[in-house]
Structures are given as structure tokens and as C-alpha cells.
Design a protein that fits this description.
Two copies of one chain form a homodimer. Chain A is an alpha/beta fold. In chain A, 46% of the residues lie in helices and 18% in strands. A seven-stranded mixed β-sheet of chain A has the order 3-4-5-6-2-1-7. In chain A, β1 and β2 form a beta hairpin. The first copy, chain A, is flat.
Chain lengths: 454, 454
């Protein structure tokens, strides 16, 4: 595959002003290209894994003083020749350097193209390649550990091993088919059944780990909702312990959905403060309320805020009925408890309400504990195998279903060609997880989600 | 200075999710500290400027797979032993690695501390060290070139050379003072006068370059102002050619000051869209208008927008009188020219108005040309010496004034001790520019403006 050798370039570090930025080049000619724009030692003659100081220039124009790191194939991330240019961390310098490299024969890398090359050149399998993106996007230490475990092998080896055993049976059954009408049985049905049960029991463990894995990887979108002036922005600020949202006495102050993240017990919660729900003639506010409804539909948890200073028990029950209809888990939070009627408080306490005062930061910790108790997870340890990727989860489920069909088929004595078809299907799904079977579409879909430069 | 050896650590690349991030360690023990948290080759035994793959761990816990670059004193940026750890670009991994390094003996670097060490260890003079920050913050190619020229020497050498000549005269005059009442003259007054004139003519060039240098470095804050619904947000969007600001028919839509940058002819303009100026009872809008007034006071240029669809010539003249009072350069921009009275248009054309339609993007290029013509500069070339730093500018001015006092003193025949005092003063100011004379306060002030990790 010759196109893989094309020299590609991208910024590898985050955008922005900083001490240094690193630009990455990969491809057979990458060292030669770097040489064309570099004044310093002759790079092509230097050994791999060495660093060289010099000036980067575009013709007569000096761009920056840089350090160049050399990696010679196959001893680089992509297994190709590769160069890392460490320049001053100025967006304008980065732009100039990339522009110059493009002029001298490189082309811009597409998202995930470095990792895709690493995969295509056999550095790791597809599930491990995907873990590279996960490790970068990890927002909690648990998510980092889960992704690192996956990147270092995770379930890949076990799945590849089980798949090979299954291939063995598949080929025996295909062999039977070659004998057509003759009643031969190369693949012992009992052994096949045992293998399938073994595979399924392993798949079950992985599939069951997904709920936890998903929470660890993606965090929990938590929407703060309620009527205007119930104190939603005040609660957001109290939860985050900073003045994130503008707070005023005026109902309808918040228009855009304001959000921020917070780690509770190793899980990332994305708290969203929303426009208060009411009928309004204010066009901008109405747009805001539409956004609120959208957030509510996507939430994993709603913190529904009741204004206890203004509501009767009946009001509260009516409001609660509306939330129930959303069919999203919610916590009932009574705010302004300091201004509430004592009798009302007593009744609400019996109805599983959490009573807080956002402005006085009263019972905020109790609320946090309650939120967390809904999503209790254990800490991820080194070596724990956890499925965090939706694609892997779906592949595992589909494999499991195909295998179940094989078992049912064997029970009802269907013919070998139907058995073979379901086994092939299972092999296909398993192979897609680790990338032993790939299509251009599948790869494009996976790597397009990477950031550029990875 | 033993404290300089203390191992310091900081993230050197920009914050954020990316392919890789680089953490920088510097100080005598930095390689030994890296060794303690690294599983791979024995780093202390490897040569300088080499790169090593391995795993970073905190006790039993693996944090990430990393590349470690080694720099041995004096061949590093700081001239100390230094280590760069290239890890996956996840904020959580960066945090974990830095935490672990702190545990093993490093401390967090203060802003600019790496560059400060490079200065203290003699890598470059103070003006060059300051250029490191400027090169990072450069927002245009001109600013980058100006900073690079300064970092590579710029006026430093020339100033140091002139200062040495001046020191020579100073010491001769001080010698005269030792002879007290005797009427000796070691320092030839004519030679001294010629030297001072030579220095002053060089200073003059540098001082005069500051206006241009300042515009190149800092860009030009340009505020779009006008009555509500004059089309300010529409103009901002038209200038930027994107939908940056929310636009609606409703007067008072914009509340916060919305800003974005645009490069015109190598100069950075920071365009600010503001809340329309009017009396209002809306509290949030009123806060917005207060911010508008603040922006206007700080602007280098105001684009004042008149709504031609609603205004008579008299209205317009009245409005213009209000702007004049601000005492900030402004351009008169008539908007909604497509809906304006033909007679009004004729009159305004004679009065230096730029007539546009922001919504139809009519005459936007003409407006840009007009803005740019106010700030015409030449392109900065390699080797051009340009003063871009306010501190240097002030130092040069003060030197110049001290030297003028010396000339006046010589003319009026004042005694050697007064001459010596003014010369010493001039030497002091020159020395502060290049850092031959420094105080802790001066250094703290300069390096605290750097980013952490630089």
C-alpha cells in the first residue's frame, strides 16, 4: 500500500499559546523533507531517537529556532520514518512551519491518520488503536486506567485466541459442506457447543462491563431544571463552587445552556444549568427554553429544583407529574429551604426530597452524595478489562447473538450450511472488533473521530 | 546560586486534549527524578539529546506510555540537566504525571522560570529572554519576525557595545574626581560629546521604531459602537465573515462585549461588538452598556455606526458630536445605505462617511481598506530591529534623557561629579534593558508575565 508512505504533517500538541508546540511528520520521506527546511546538522545522517537544534526556514526567511527529534522506521509510533519538530508555542509559528512543510512535499494529515498508519503497519490491533483516542479523551483517572489497560492489550488477545478456535471449527464445518450429501461430521458437535459456551461466557463478562465502562468513559450528563427563578444558576455555582453562571433576581436571566464538569468519586458529571421552563413571549428566552427541553431529553439524570418559598404541596406534586413524563431518572430537590413553611418541609422529608439552600450552600454535600449514590462504581485497577467503546459493545452483542443462533440451530438439527453461515457471522463481528476484518468505511468512521495530529 | 539547581516541572505545551503533551523538568537532579518514575532504559547512563520509550508509573500504578528526551548540562535550554516527557495529550494524564514528579522531588515551576534560569545561566541577555515570551505571543507574522530578530540578538549587541564605550568615559571621569581640586581632564570632552551623539542617534532610531513595533506586537483594539439596532453585530459578522454574534431585529440583543480578531495587512485588529448606546431600564442591558463605555475608553479606533434608514442629517451631526468628546480616533460609517434617502447619501459622501450595507456585505472591503490606511506599516524583514517592548522603550527614553542632561551639563561647564552622576544614570538604564544590571524585583516583574512551562 504505497499511499501509506506519503509524508503527512500535523500539530500534535494542543492549540494555543504555550512554551513549546510539537509538529509531527511521518512517512518515508519525512526526514528528507525536514532537512530541506532545517539549518543545522545533516538530519539524514543522524541515528534514530536523537535530537538536533537548529533553525527552521522558508527560503531566506527564518521562522523559528527548533529542536528536531528523529525516529527511523520501524522504530516510530507509525513504524515509518518520523520527525517531531519542537518549536516555540505560538499559533502563528506553527502555521508558518506547517505551511512550509506542505510546500516542501508533505500533506496535511487527516484526523487519526498517524494512529491509522500505526494500525495498518501492525503496531497494534484496532481495539488498541481506538484506546489511543480514549486515553487522550479520558476525563477521570478511572477512564485513563481503563483506556490504558485496553491500549496495552485488554481483551484483544483473548478475543483473537477464541476467534482462532472458532475458525478451526468453521473450517471443519465448511469441509463437511464440500462432501455435500455424504453424512460426514468432521466438527464434533459437543466440542463446538462447549467452545461456544466458553466464548459466550467470556463475552457476557465483557458485555456486562459496558454499563460501568460507559459511565467511566463518558461521564454523566446531569441537567438542572425547574421553573424560572427556582435557583438553578445558584445551584450550579454552589455545586461547582465558583461563579460560573450569571445570577440575578430576574426570572429568565439564563438563556444559553451553561455547563461545566465536576468529578465526584472518580466519575465525571457534566452539570448543565438551563433556562427556566415557562411560557414566554421573549424570543431569545423561548429559544433558550427549547434548548432546555433538548438537554432534558439527552440527560442521564435530572436535578429538578422546586422553589419551596413559593410552592404548596399541591403545586409541587403537579410539577413532579410533568417531570415523570420525561422518563429520565431525576432527583427531587427542594430549594430555598430557609424560606419554606415548616409543615411543608416535614411532608417533603417523608417523600424523598433533598432539601437544600443553594444560596446559603446548605446540604450541597448531601446532594452530591445522593447524586453519586446513583452511579456507584469501583475504582479501575491495572489489568481490569472493561468495555468502554460503543462499537466494541455492539460487536460483542452481535457476536453473542450469532453464537446463540448456532446453538439453537444445533439443537434443532439444522444443516451444516446454516450453521456455517452463523459461525461466519460471529467470526466477522469478532474480527471487526480487533480489526482482523476491516473495511475502508469502518476505518474511516473510527479514525475520523480522532483529533488531527494523533 | 544553589536554588537555581532545584528541579522544577511544568507542562510546556498548551492545555487541552491533543495527540501528545510535553512535560518539562529542569535542574541538576531532573534526570535522576525521571528515572525514579520510569520503566525502560537506565536514563542516567544515556547520552544527551537522546529519546527513550518506556512506561511512567507511580509505584504499582502505570500512568502512561511515554517518550523521554534527555538534555545534559550545559546543552539544554536552561543550561541545566533537563528532561522532556512526551505523554498522551490528556489533561488527566498530565496532572497525574506532574503529581508523581512532585512526589519524587520536583517542585512546580513558577511562570517563566525556565527562561529565567536560561538568562541567569548566561544563555542570553534580558532583552532576548523577553523576546522568548514575545515570540510565543506573536499574533501576526510581522510580530513573530520582530520577536525572532530580537531573540537572535536584535539591538542587544549594539547597546552592550555602546554601553562599554560609555563605561570607558565614565571611569575616566571618575578618575578625574579622585584628583579632587587638581584641574586634570582624562576624558576628552569632545570625544565624550561625539560618543553621546552617536549613542543618541542610535537610541533615536530605536525609540522611533516603537510606534510601529507596538502596533505590530499588540494589534489594534477597534470598537464597533452606535445606537441600538444600528447593525453593529451584523457588521462584526460581515467583517469576520462568520456568524459570530447573535443578530436579531430586537434592539438590545447584544449584551456582553463580543470580540474577535482579524489580520488585515499583517496587523492584528481586535474587533469588539458592543451593546447599543441608549438609556435603558433593563438591568442586564444596562450592565452591557457600561461595558461598552469601558471598551470605548480603551479603543485605538472606533467604528461608529449610524443607522441611515432612520436618521436625518441633523440626528447624525448630533450623534457625531457625542463621539468627538471621547477623544479617540473614529471612522464614520453609515449603515443600511440601501434603505437611505438619496439626498442624505449625497451629503454624507461629501463629509467623509463610509457608506455600507452590513447585511448585504456592501462596501465591506472599502471599509477594511480605510481601517488599514490608518495604520500603514511595512513588512518586518529578517534583521530589522524594532522595539516592541514597553519596558525597553521606557529604558531607551530614560537613557536618552540622561545623556541629554550630560550634554547640557558639559555645555554649561558643570563639575565632573554631576557629569558622572548623569552618565551613571544612563549606564544604569542601558544595563537594565539588556539585564547587565538587574534586581530581583525587575526579574520577578518580567518573568511573572511569562506562561508557566516557559
Amino acid at each position: 500500500m504505497n499511499f501509506v508512505d506519503e509524508p503527512i504533517v500535523a500539530l500534535a500538541t494542543a492549540q494555543g499559546i504555550s512554551a513549546i508546540a510539537v509538529i509531527r511528520l511521518s512517512g518515508k520521506d519525512s526526514i528528507a523533507i525536514a532537512q530541506r527546511v532545517f539549518r543545522g546538522k545533516e538530519l539524514t545522517k543522524q541515528p534514530s531517537h536523537t535530537i538536533h537544534f537548529g533553525t527552521l526556514h522558508d527560503g531566506e526567511k527564518n521562522i523559528d529556532e527548533v529542536l528536531i527529534s528523529l525516529f527511523k522506521e520501524p522504530n516510530s509510533f507509525t513504524k515509518e520514518n518520523a520527525v517531531e519538530i519542537s518549536c516555540h508555542g505560538s499559533p502563528i509559528i506553527v502555521k508558518e512551519i506547517i505551511k512550509t512543510l506542505l510546500k516542501h512535499g508533505a500533506r496535511l494529515a487527516t484526523p487519526g491518520e498517524f494512529t491509522k498508519r500505526a494500525f495498518l503497519n501492525g503496531r497494534f490491533d484496532l481495539a488498541q488503536a481506538e484506546a489511543v483516542a480514549d486515553i487522550i479523551n479520558a476525563e477521570t483517572d478511572n477512564a485513563r486506567q481503563a483506556a490504558l489497560n485496553q491500549m496495552r492489550g485488554g481483551f484483544s488477545k483473548e478475543i483473537q485466541h477464541l476467534r482462532e478456535e472458532l475458525i478451526h471449527f468453521a473450517s471443519l464445518i465448511e469441509l463437511e459442506l464440500d462432501f455435500g450429501e455424504e453424512d460426514v461430521e468432521f466438527a464434533k458437535r459437543d466440542d463446538l457447543r462447549n467452545l461456544i459456551l466458553k466464548i459466550q461466557s467470556y463475552l457476557k463478562v465483557l458485555i456486562n462491563s459496558f454499563d460501568q465502562g460507559n459511565v467511566i468513559k463518558n461521564g454523566i450528563p446531569t441537567v438542572i431544571a425547574g421553573k424560572p427563578n427556582a435557583g438553578k444558576s445558584t445551584l450550579l455555582n454552589a455545586l461547582l463552587n465558583e461563579e460560573k453562571a450569571i445570577v440575578s433576581e430576574i426570572p429568565g436571566t439564563t438563556r444559553d445552556v451553561i455547563e461545566d464538569e465536576m468529578i465526584l468519586g472518580g466519575i465525571s458529571f457534566r452539570f448543565m444549568d438551563t433556562a427556566g421552563l415557562r411560557e414566554t413571549v421573549d424570543i431569545v428566552e423561548a429559544l433558550g427554553i427549547e434548548r432546555t427541553r433538548e438537554s432534558l431529553r439527552k440527560a442521564s439524570l435530572i436535578l429538578y429544583l422546586f422553589d419551596l418559598s413559593k410552592s404548596s404541596l399541591e403545586d409541587i406534586h403537579n410539577e413532579e407529574n410533568e417531570i415523570k413524563e420525561l422518563n429520565v431518572p431525576y432527583l427531587k430537590v427542594g430549594n430555598k429551604v430557609d424560606k419554606a413553611d415548616a409543615e411543608l418541609i416535614q411532608k417533603l422529608e417523608r417523600e424523598d426530597f433533598i432539601l437544600i439552600s443553594a444560596s446559603q450552600k446548605k446540604n450541597i454535600q448531601q446532594l452530591k452524595d445522593k447524586i453519586l449514590s446513583r452511579f456507584q462504581i469501583d475504582q479501575v485497577k491495572q489489568g481490569d478489562v472493561l468495555v468502554t467503546n460503543l462499537r466494541h459493545y455492539q460487536g460483542l452483542k452481535q457476536t453473542d447473538e450469532s453464537l446463540s443462533r448456532v446453538l439453537v440451530g444445533m439443537g434443532s438439527g439444522i444443516t451444516g450450511d446454516f450453521l456455517a453461515m452463523d459461525i461466519r457471522q460471529a467470526l466477522h463481528y469478532l474480527g471487526e472488533i480487533t480489526g482482523q476484518i476491516t473495511t475502508d468505511d469502518l476505518l474511516a468512521n473510527i479514525f475520523s473521530k480522532f483529533c488531527i495530529g494523533k
